[in-house]
Amino acid sequence: MAFDGLSAVSAADVTSLAAVRALSHLSTSSSTPVPMSQTTLKTSISCTGIGLHTGKKVSMTLHPAAENTGVIFRRTDIAGGNAEIPALATHVLDSRLCTVIGLNAQQSIGTIEHLMSALVAMGVDNVVVEVNAPELPIMDGSAAPFVFLIECAGLVAQSATRKALKVLKPVTVSHGMAEATLLPSATPRIDFEIDFPVAAIGQQAMTFSVSSSAFVAEIARARTFCLIDDIAKMREAGLALGGSLDNAIVVNGAEILNEDGLRYSNEFVRHKVLDAIGDLALAGKPILGHYIGKRSSHALNTTLVKTLLADPSAWTIVDMLPEEIPAAGLPSLARVAAQ
Ligand SMILES: [Zn+2]
What is the 3-state secondary structure of 24-93? Predict the structure, then answer.
């Protein structure tokens, strides 16, 4: 299957995804909870789009992968492109504007954060991402097109148990006014606060209990954003050449320049939640903990993950139980988008 952009989700595919979830939830009625299974995609699925920074056309294909593979990126456009780049914080090369991971400067892939967010939130454990450019397509600047691909491909349960990284004690990192913390928690949760000295954004805060259904309903469609003053600076530096009102909210003081305005009144903080979920996914497993971000960034979130992993007394690996990722009901992205 191949898609360019977002269109209606097939009812059959959504049903199949819901069925996988339902299987995972059978355990809630028994006295001994049965851990969730790992999942992969039912079939390969492709899309094309524009690279945010290069401005060039990018093709991306998500392939099913064996259990315990995790998320692996593979560049098809360079010599030695069959090298596999695991989506792990230890491979982050740069996270100033977007997250770039790689084995080295050549064998690297950028702008992975929105796909990573969609994969972990939708419960895709194992996938190989083939891409023919140095960055993923930006699509509409949100995670919704990637959720759409996952919904269309469908998920299959695998025999291995899904593992989670359970936070055992608080870990905090900070940089200037920014702070990011992970606390122990029975279920995954994200709290985010932003404070931009720009009238259209200002102070926004959100508390989000992570589940696939809530991600689709509340987070996936929130787009990335930038200030109009930053665009000229990025272009001068040869960046954001593919950036446009089609793939980012552009803010000028109190004004939103996008013709259709915002998708949510607090779309900015929702997108920061989306980014944080994608950044935390670079732990290599879903994090069972409570994340609190205050003005945090990709760079600080990556530092948080590395700091957590560097302290073996701060975490442990556990089997993930269904009640730790409540996913009752699966709203179709198409239905959410139509609201
Ligand atoms: Zn983002």
Answer: HHHHHHCCCCCCCEEEEECCCEEEEEEECCCCCEEEEEEEECCCCCCEEEEECCCCCCCCEEECCHHHEE
